[in-house]
Amino acid sequence: MAKFRYLSASKEILKGVLLIFCVYGATDYSQPKEWVDFVNNLAGGSHIYITQLSLYMTIITLVLSYCVKHMGVSSIKEIYRDFLSITLPMEGLVTTVFWTLNSIDPTLLKNKELYTAGVRTPLICEVSLHLFPFIVLLVDQVGVNIYEKKRHYWFFGIFGFTYFIVIHHFQKLNDYWIYPFLGYMTILMRAVLVFTAVLLVVGYYKLFMQFSRVTNTRMYPKTLKKKLM
Predict the structure, then answer these.
(1) Nearest-5° angle of CA 134, CA 139, CA 141?
(2) How confident is the model over 157-175, as pLDDT tens digits?
(3) Pfam families given for it (predicted)?
């Protein structure tokens, strides 16, 4: 029991630290001034980037987590579970795609002119945006019974379709693709890309459901099952 309390306390401390980094990553203070000025001149600003959207969802999920787990607000427990269930695989997608493309060519994701001019995002910001949100949600799901729901699949599909429309709408407004690699594709290729991304998110969703079951079974033996949410 003492070991369990120690692990629980360590988990909450880690979550708190990572949450601070996530909030930092969501602010303009984490980015170079040149990039902030560039993005702020775009219609939609930074709020049209899926990285930013998923980060907002992560922060909301963690706020709900603290409300449910530490403030006893049981009325929002299902909302919290829904947020955790859908945000974790989305952050998995963001983490996978960003680090893969960034390792190939950073200008696939970043403005080429700014990058060529030497404007760089600090590493602490990159991990606050593209790694820590995923890790903190993985940590948060320990001890939570999350279930597969049909509405989650609907959310992934509707989000993907909506985001496909959004990126084209703002490309027309800004005459600029929010992710430069999209400009190398035809509309059909972009549609296939979004569809593939949705499938990948669904794959992560199923994987993390299984991961949650295995983790909770091992960390919460029968004597501690009542502590599961």
Answers:
(1) 95
(2) 999 999 999 999 999 999 9
(3) Far-17a_AIG1
Give the DSSP H or E segment for 14. Answer: helix 2-25
d(CA 168, CA 146): 34
Q: Which two tokens stand for residue 21?
A: 């980094």
pLDDT per residue as tens digits for the range 7-34: 777 888 999 999 999 999 999 999 999 9
- Residue 197 CB neighbours (<10 A): 20
Which pTM value belongs to this model? 0.91
**pLDDT per residue over 35-66, tens digit each?**
999 999 999 999 999 999 999 999 999 999 99
Question: pLDDT exceeding 90 applies to what percent of the chain?
Answer: 80
**134, 96 contact by CB (below 8 A):** no
Specify the length of the chain in residues.
229
Tell me how far apart the alpha carbons of residues 101 and 103 are, in angstroms, rounded to a whole number: 5
Q: Establish how many alpha carbons lie within 13 A of residue 104's alpha carbon, considering only the half-sphere containing its beta carbon.
A: 8
Residue type, 120: R
Count of other CB atoms within 10 angstroms of residue 221: 9
Q: What pLDDT does residue 221 have? A: 57
Q: Name the 3-class secondary structure at 221.
A: coil
| Residue 35 near residue 42 (C-beta atoms within 8 A) | no
Of residues 163, 187, 176, the one with CA closest to residue 43: 176
For the chain, how are helix, strand and coil distributed in percent, rounded to 5? 80, 0, 20
